[in-house]
Amino acid sequence: MMDAKDPVIRVLTAADLDAAMGLSAAAGWNQRIADWRMLLQLAPAGAFAAVAGGTIVGTAIGIDYGRFGWIAMMLVDPAWRGRGIGARLLRAAMAAVPPDVPIRLDATPLGRPLYRRHGFEDESRLTRHVADASRPAADPPSHGAAHQVRRLGPADLTAVFAQDQRVFGATRRPLLEWLLDGAPHYAHAIDTTAGAHYCFGRTGRLFDQIGPVVGDDASARALVSASLAAAHGRGVVVDAFDRHAGFAAWLRSRGFDGARPLFRMCRAGTRGAWTGHDEQEHAILGPEFG
After folding, report:
1. pTM exceeding the 0.90 threshold for the entire prediction
2. Side-chain half-sphere CA neighbours of 206 within 13 A
3. From residue 222, how far is each of 22, 41, 157, 243 by CA, in Å?
């Protein structure tokens, strides 16, 4: 029987991660325990749990990226929804971010009304593209920009960090290092006169994710094609911005289906709204990380 008492909102700790992982897995989400550990590393004081009767029934994480905050892992056990727990968790995560900076997130259609009630407005739209292991083979190396693709290694990271700070709008060096260490087979680069175009990827509980993908349209296709060739029969997801219609059409030609929309949203800080934007970002790291 569900405890009638309202859950307590408290800081999420390393000791809670197995329970948090169980909650996200029960919801059908893709995170591994390694993802939860990285999120806690990014926001040790911004991760929160709703706890009822000793059981975690909800989570939310507020990450401070410096120029903006990010809301991640907003999750409430279905049996506890409709009691304002999501709003309490969201407010706790928002309060962990400095009030002068904008706060951003990627919302599902289910969560979007809650964020709107808390002052978030749409910034752009994405689609989650999913391909199972039966997708067509990757493009051959001689196709388009693909012949320029090379593996990305540790020696490339300094240049990639500088480029990524311009694209992402903040520093996420620990994340990119984590991606390269955990899934080096998905990290690729194309050298250009304007700097590196690049992509990373990561393994997941249900499927692998390719992203971020940064470059022009031809580079984005070549980078993702190289990553697909390295997927070794795994299902793959790409969360891509809808503004790149040609890239989305190419994903469909490679066996991807549009699974669901995501809404990039932003809440202004006391210094104003988010003003950064870079057309070169074709796909994101994932709603957990931005």
Report:
1. yes
2. 12
3. 36, 32, 20, 18
